[in-house]
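Example 3.2
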Amino acid sequence: MSLWHCVVAYLLAIASAALYGAADFLGGIGSRRASTIAVVVTSQGCGLLALLLILPFLPASSPSTRDLVWGATAGVAGGVGVALLYRALAVGRMAVVAPTTAVCAVIIPVVAGVLTGDRLALLTTIGIGLALAAILLVSRQTIALSEEAANSRLFPPGVWLALASGVAIGLFYLALARSGTMAGMWPLVGARAASVALFGIPAIWNGQSLRLTTPVARIAVAAGVVDMCANAFYLVATRYAPLSVVVTLSSLYPASTVLLARVVLGERLNVWQVAGVVCALAAIALIVGGDSLPF
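Structure, written as tokens:
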């Protein structure tokens, strides 16, 4: 595989991280204003619709049954992960929840990639370690805690949900990457169809309303389309570069979430979070440049 393919794959993974962070930010905002299930079904459904609309304009592909099964498996895991993440973002602090999820999400596929033969350059390995440090630094808080919060400091609101979400998203990354190179975007069709059915059918069966107000519906639609674009970039990147590297770059999305919270919600970045963003940029440089250097 050529160096050019790897560099393009890394750039796609970085783009997916920025879009994942934006989608999570939008989903978290929407889930603070309406039912998490309604937001998830709407966002996932709109993402599926957007993909189906552009499929005729994409290069021809020939997905196998195996590709669709892996896509559906990814969809179930990803749907659960997104639902848990949106709920965690609704009840907890975004700067804590997003990085916690990312750490869990990156561990599973990185370990799987190394165990299945990914050989990483020294600088790439250092970059992955620095990326994990960046994720942790972005989550650091300097806000004074109340006595009650201090007593439960190890388990702030939303963290348990974030941990479970991270495991599910890690499985999503792993399953989606198992699809073949000739499958095109069809594994994502299977993934989204599975996730919409997973939440939509039980909600309708139980008579749960999925209606959203117009402002929240707009947020959910935007979250779904942005998330689908992120998934597409990630899927293409996994076909041209080591899974462990692509997942690590894609999992830098908490930096995007935190920056959006700063710009849109006015949340200030503390010194730890600034350091985390700097580490993230350095990690990207090391990972992208690792394969091009002779050590």
